[in-house]
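Bench notes, afternoon.
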Amino acid sequence: MVARLLELYKNEVAPKLAEEFGYTNRLAVPKLEKIVVSMGIGRAINDPSLLESAAEELALITGQKPIITTARKSVSGFKLRKGMKIGLKVTLRGQRMYEFLDRLISLAIPRVKDFRGLSPSGFDGRGNYNMGLTEQTVFPEIHPDKVKAVQGMNIAIVTTAKNDEQARRLLTLLGMPFRMPAGVAQR
């Protein structure tokens, strides 16, 4: 079974982007490259079991086992030593990436309290978008009763777009609900 967003991209989004930005080669049309979901778990220094439970939850959310990230350098103020396990990271590509993005757009984002649209300032200038979620319980796979600690996460969406305008248009056509800057009409 092919992911719903992948079908949408191939049948509607790619032809529309090619027309809007004047691409004649279909391989040059902006597309999603990967999505990186990461969690920084600073409290794991004192309680390593938090890292394990967060790893299980991240695996449920993404459908892929996360890798454990370690501290790059020591920081005495945080009682942190180089090499300590302090985070988790998952890199999604292909079908899993599209399935995750579909669940993020249609299920998780609408469950965020007081949601008024994603910030348009999350673009990095090279066509990639970063956003944060304050808690993992917005995903339906996570049961709030079983959560040991509420944990935020960063989601980096890497595209092949040449600039932020093309990346924003790609993500908008895929269904990302961006907040419009004041005085700008949506296409």
